[in-house]
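Weekly structure sync - notes
Attendees: PM, LS, DV (DV joined late)
Agenda: review two folding runs queued last week.

Item 1: First target. Sequence and structure tokens pasted below for the record.
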Amino acid sequence: MAFQGSDKYYLNPELELIVNMALQMDKPLLLTGEPGTGKTQLAFEISRSLQMPLEVLRAKSTIKGEEVCYVQDTVLRLNDARFGTENTGRDVNNFFDYVVWGPIGRAFRSPERVVLLLDEIDKTESDVQDNLLDVLDEKQFTIREVNQVVQATHPPLIIITSNAKRELSDPFLRRCFCHHLAFPDRSEMVEIVRLHYPEIDDTLLDTALGLFYELRAAGFEKAPATSELLDWLQALENSGLKPGVPDKIPFIGSLLKRSEDLLAYRRSGLQSRRRQW
């Protein structure tokens, strides 16, 4: 089993090598890079291409390490103890009737190998990351209430993404293969765009990429990324705009999303410059 890219995901040779090494060695793969470079999408495309189920944890600052494995629905259990469980199929004395499995719990208990995506792990507190160390390394966790170990039936392919909002601990990093997704250069971006829009007009693509990379170099707080470029190109194609008609950059809100950047764009003079659309 190997991932070689897909009809929607451009995979450069270096990334292909490390993805498939993580598949072979059952080692977590930590992907870093600016938003919009395809970190999260990689997990979805591996799942789709290799027909592996996908479990996703969208990390947030309030999450606790245990709840990504399981939680007990104590409110439901207390309610059943008070009012009875007739016609519910639950037994108030059976702990597992009240367990809600988290993404890791579902991935470890799956009867087939899955892709487990821990998205934007840098949003979590350091103690949460530390709590996950042994779980991810040993592919098991303990249910404290009944002192029962849940061991992964089939070790999942673990994809972890980080936007570097917060530094990850050295012990966490040691347990992962790490790969930084650099922003695509122009030639790679052509390959990416053509996967999504194989019939795109060459002149339109060349003009659009020139403007796109000019905006990225202009120093905006949130420079447009690949996902913004793809949305922008779709808007251009849907509108029927073609190079040759002088105008300002159309659909600028598809590329620049923050108010400060839009204001800076208007002040910069880029808006007033004549563009060949």
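Item 2: Second target, run right after the first with the same settings.
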Amino acid sequence: MEHFDVIVVGAGISGIGAGYHLQKNCPNKSYMILEGRDKIGGTWDLFKYPGIRSDSDMYTLGYSFKPWTKPKAIADAPSILSYLNETAEEHGIDKKIRYGHQVKNASWSSADAKWTVDVELGEDKTVSQFTCSFLFMCAGYYSYKGGYTPDFPGLEDYQGRLVHPQKWTDDIDYTDKKVVVIGSGATAVTLIPELAKKATHVTMLQRSPTYVVSRPAEDKLANTLRRYLPAKLAYGITRWKNVLLGMYFYNLCRTKPEMVKKRLLDEVRKELGPDFDVDKHFNPTYNPWDQRLCLVPDSDMFQALKTGKASVATDHIETFTADGIRLKSGEELKADLVVSATGLQLEVLGGLRVNVDGKPVEFSKALTYKGMMYSDVPNLASSFGYTNASWTLKCDLTCEYLCRLINHMDKAKVQQATPRIKDANVEVEPWLDLTSGYVQRAKDILPKQGTTRPWKLYQNYALDIMMLGYGAVDDGTMEFAKATPANMNRAAAQVAAE
């Protein structure tokens, strides 16, 4: 059975970043990345629907150590995938990846201070085991098996094709076809203008509107700086400019929601003109950033709406029919193809089953420590990005903290680090404060957060730099211990008592 100091699960944007930070900050530690699929890239390789792109700029979605040098700040999936492959090859991280290794179970032994990880290999699902001192989950936040599709009434009568964007395949033909996209989130907003290039007509069918913001696909300042400054310096300036602007805008949404809402709607009215019913189709009932805003690069979706190649229907589905969808208003939408852009299925730690000294861990009852570890679970961390900013900003900080923690444990000659709730006044709150459907559907399986540090999830890059980058590792909440039979006996006694 092979043993590694650290096993990283997932070879997407988080896992590759983890490999870099471990090599840089813990050079004497062995690590391996276990990837369930046969390719690098995670999300950016999995999704194949037309026009797939990031809704975060690449100066913040990119790694802190790897400047983004292409002109487009809002990049498409192939460009992001190329960037990830290049990063992995440059640093030899690609040689640390084992593909077709689907991690299923992880068992912690306090006596040995190590994890035993059960892995299914390849299509025949042969079971193999690895051990590690620290387990770092970089498996994302949603199920790769499939997205969420509601139980649509009358679907059995529909003669066209229904597809979820997560399951898009090359044989899906939308040329000269009538297409209906159900949903109004980031995926729908991406699909509409791309499908409209070839389809006869595309209708975005939504139950309720989403805030939609247009911004240039290219960052002029970034491209100018890159012509005159070294790549790393230009990248760093642009990165901090975008971070600070994002923080300012998010704070404005929280403190002055009505003012921000008016400005957002005024911008949409300016884009679409006086004849478009903005209040019906783009005026949500919630405040900005109660759900994620949708990005429209270079006004592409607005252009599709203005040319008549696309339209918006704000209504509820009564039933599918043989040739389309009948709405509760009585309107019928003809559709050769229906795309159900109705969200993802959230998943905790990639669906990993975990037990500590023989006791199963219920993550729905655990509190997250510094947004990356879990109460009473030793030597396990996960990488989870921001909901109000770029994913990678938080992942970079998480990786750096993990390395600080590992190095501190070596210096203190301890083998276990376990977050413990020692403050009886800590109250429990939902982990994510978004009202989005995909978050609300998963609220019963998600971990929780506390009301005070280090259990509070602030969604604030500046605060997290101070906490994860400079805050004390031995903070009175993290409990450190050696690997001893006594620890095992105490843990076994606790399980028996419960």
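Discussion on item 2: The chain is about 30% helix and 25% strand.
Action: LS to circulate a short write-up before next sync.
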